[in-house]
Amino acid sequence: MRVAIAGAGAVGRSIAGELLENGHEVLLIDKAPTAISVERVPQAEWLLADACEITSLDEAALQRCNVVIAATGDDKVNLVVSLLAKTEYGVPRVVARVNNPKNEWLFNEAWGVDVAVSTPRLMSALVEEAVSVGDLVRLLRFSHGDANLVELTLPPESALSGTAVGDVEWPQDTSLVTIIRGSRVLTPSAEETLEAGDELLFVAAQAREEQLEDLLSVRREDAAS
C-alpha cells in the first residue's frame, strides 16, 4: 500500500515509521527544509514541497496513493490537503489530524475526510475510558455514515451481564466489534456471554449512542421491574 503523509514533524515521522515496519510504501511531504530529515526515516521517500499546491501533489503522484494522511500542525492545511486528495486525485482513504478540538466539526466528508483523529480528544477519551464504568466514551469519529468508535465498560449491575451477545437486541446502526476481557481480545460471536468488567467496543451511529449507553448501563432491578 502506498501512503502519502503531509507533515514531516514528529507525528508524521512516527506514523511513517510504523507504516514502513508493516511493509507499506511511504512518502513524506513538507514545505519546511528543516523538516526534511531523511536520516530519521531513511526508508521513506521525501518531498520538499507545499502539500496545498496542486503542482506539488502532481509531483507526489497522489493519484497512485491508497491513503493520504494530513498530519501537519495546522488544521487549515490539513483540511486543504484532505479536500485536494479526495476531489482532485480520488484517493480512496483520507485521514486527517485535528489539532484544535473546536475545529473537529469541519473534518467531515464535505472536506474529503474519511477519518478525523483529534489527538486532544483521543487523549481525553483514553483518560475517561480508564476511569469510567457504565459511561459511553467516544474514541474515534468516522466521517462516512456519521459513525463513531465508542467504548463502554460493562458495570457489575448491568442487566446484560451473563447474557449471550446473540440474545441482545442492539440498537439499529450499531455493531459490537470487540470485547476486551482482561488481557484477552475476543471476537463477539453470538454465543459469547457478556461479563461485568468487559470493555465493549462498538461502531455506532452518533444518533444511537444514548440508546446504546442506556441499554448497557441499565440496572438489574430496573430491567426486572
TrEMBL record:
Q: Which Gene3D superfamilies match?
A: NAD(P)-binding Rossmann-like Domain, Regulator of K+ conductance, C-terminal domain
User: What are the entry keywords?
Assistant: Ion transport, NAD, Potassium, Potassium transport, Transport
This protein's superkingdom? Bacteria
Q: Which InterPro entries match?
A: K_uptake_TrkA (IPR006036), NAD(P)-bd_dom_sf (IPR036291), RCK_C (IPR006037), RCK_C_sf (IPR036721), RCK_N (IPR003148), Trk_Ktr_HKT_K-transport (IPR050721)
One Pfam family in the UniProt entry? TrkA_N
Report the residue ranges that make up the RCK C-terminal domain in this protein: 137-218
Task: Name the chain's protein.
Answer: Trk system potassium uptake protein TrkA
- Organism name: Streptomyces ficellus
